[in-house]
Amino acid sequence: MESSRDGVDKPMLQSNPPLSSERRPETSGQLESILSDTRLPFCQRLLAATWTELKLLFRLAGPAVAVYMINYLMSMSTQIFAGHLGNLELAAASLGNTGVQMFAYGLMLGMGSAVETLCGQAFGAQKFEMLGIYLQKSTVLLTITGFLLTFIYIFCKPILILLGESSEIASAAAIFVYGLIPQIYAYAANFPIQKFLQAQSIVAPSAYISAATLLLHLLLSWVAVYKIGLGLVGSSLVLSLSWWIIVVAQFFYIVKSEKCKYTWGGFSLKAVSGLCGFFKLSAASAVMLCLETWYFQVLVLLAGLLENPEVALDALSICMTILGFVFMISVGFNAAASVRVGNELGAGHPKSAAFSVVVVTLVSFLISVVAAALVLVLRHVISYAFTGGETVAQAVSDLCPVLAITLMLNGIQPVLSGVAVGCGWQAFVAYVNVGCYYIVGVPLGSLLGFYFKLGAKGIWLGMLGGTLMQTLILIWVTTRTNWNKEVEKARERLEKWDDKKQPLLMD
User: Fold this and answer.
1) How many domains does the chain divide into?
2) pLDDT (tens digit, 9 = 90+) per residue, 45-94?
3) Domain that holds residue 321
4) Looking at residue 455, what DSSP letter applies?
5) DSSP states of 480-503
6) Burial 95-105 (b: 16+ CB within 10 A, else e)
7) Under 8 Å CB-to-CB from 349, ≥6 apart: which residues?
8) Is residue 316 in a domain?
């Protein structure tokens, strides 16, 4: 390959070959050949193509799922430690974790996603020094955003009361949230670093760092909550500390690793120039993800307005924690679907693109079905991992059928969203999210929960209706897609960008 002839770039590309340029001809070209070989019987072609696609799929999805699940386990374990302090503490940690922290998480992750595209383009164009500049720009911008979010954390108690939460739960949640303030700035550094590494196909170090930090987090949480007696604020402070450990360890890897010596050139004043344009790009990247992330936070906030909100919040928080944990698997497949479809379309392989969509969707759905079945089997005992209350256990058991349906939908919806990203349908999906989630789901949930007195289950069922509508729309659009036309659109984009000699997002 051309890049291998360059004596400067050769070590970098050998240790971290870009997926789109180095691996694609050998793998996706083989898949297209298998699917196009009419000399083979259909069943033989299907088996060979499925095996080839599965190897590609799990190579992409496996590491991503590991990182997301390990990081999520830290928040989940913090909630478990808080839950064993009492029902009020569990409700407070749930409201703080799901209602406040996830607000910041969605915004910061969405804004940090701009780095993923920019770093990927720069790495593919062999402009390696720009990856470090983009990393620093995003970190500066997210730190400024984090400073503004800090005020929401500081004044979260009156905000929660204004939204209708009880004074007792809001006060306890505020104590938990205060300990999460340092975590905001860990987000500001972590998300750009994560995307910087992913753009170079460096995923394993993040997984190892996260796994080691999780073990340390569990130990420190046990000491802070039970041995020192710091309670809610201790559990959240340990969570913040754990995120900072991940940030420092990843940054140390970037500085010391041979794999990053061409992409990290040290700190530069270029990081503070042109931030306005970078902000516009980051804000646009955040819209679609925020609409998705914040949707189920509305469910928790609405549950706080019910009669006996403590039990409702406890039950919902347990179900949301389980849902979030399984959702990390779907997020990994979302990323894999986006990469697979985008690579195949760029390579001019319509059959491979369509086949990849089918395989990744079926695999993700089957895993979600297994998870849903486990939830139904364990519905009467699953809550005792979080709290010992029998009232909460009964409420969780009552919600488990709705949780199981949600898990199965989440085996399809995130994957199809990844397909949409791979095809460049982000704007369309954003409109679909607004209509299905906030025009249909939230009002319907409020109607069932409050007017028809169905409580937390009614709110969830209504919002589940919005998710079902969105999933059906994405299925309809995907099944009607002309993949040959999508290949032509991809080719036109590539030719246009090549003519202008500009990166994609500067077009």
Assistant:
1) 1
2) 899 999 988 987 887 778 778 888 888 888 878 878 877 777 777 778 87
3) 41-506
4) H
5) T--HHHHHHHHHHHHHHHHHHT--
6) bbbbbbbbbbb
7) 28, 29, 31, 32, 487
8) yes
